[in-house]
Request: fold
Amino acid sequence: MSKLAEDDRFLDLSDYGRAPAKIIARAVQFTFVTPIHLTVLFGISGLLAIFSLLNEWYIFSALLLLLKSVLDAADGELSRIKETPSHTGRYLDSIFDIILNLLIFIAISYSSEINYGFALLAFICIQFQGTLYNYYYVILRNKRKGGDGTSRIFENKAPRAFPNESQKRVNIYFTIFYFLYSVFDKGIYLLDPEATKVRTFPAWFMTIVSVYGLGFQLLIIAVMLSLGYMAYIIPFFIGYSIFLVVFSQIRKKLL
Reply:
């Protein structure tokens, strides 16, 4: 888990794609392939998963969702190996994630004949869940010397571009990112504003919160698709939001 300082590392249940992601990154390290190429590939993988779901190829859709998780980790790994940090890649990654999440729930709603209103609610729930995990994770990454500071706790303005990227492009992607994510970021901050004052979080806490990481969410969807439980995915993620309160209260009471 190279994004964190060594003594902050924890068992991240959403990061099961890290090992194959490192293999992919090392395999293309000295080629023309860039982290952005891998970001685009994970976007394509997500779209193919949605296409497969709509065609009732549920096992194939599940495998493509897991592949998306691997490629989602591989772009960051390649960026670190090549020492080419990029705000452009970080924002593009997040933009792809939220669009694909929405499309996945629309496809599930269509295929399972569940009202689109519930699909939208499930999408909102899954975004708040992922944002809670990212909130604590980014705090951890930014608090300790030696952690990865590419992501920021508060995304209020466009960051200064790295030497290998265009400031104009960073500004454009940041604007899109802010439009898509600001309501979720602000909502989670209001849920637990004091978390930013905590020096660190214990490994056990971060491990249980990692069930809200996007990788673990996609794993749940993949398993439910494979087992023929697609009709339960939307109600599951709506109910799964109860842990927003549980995790924030654990943080407030114990840490």
Observations:
- The CA atoms of residues 130 and 207 lie 14 Å apart.
- The longest helix spans residues 116-143.
- The mean pLDDT is 93.
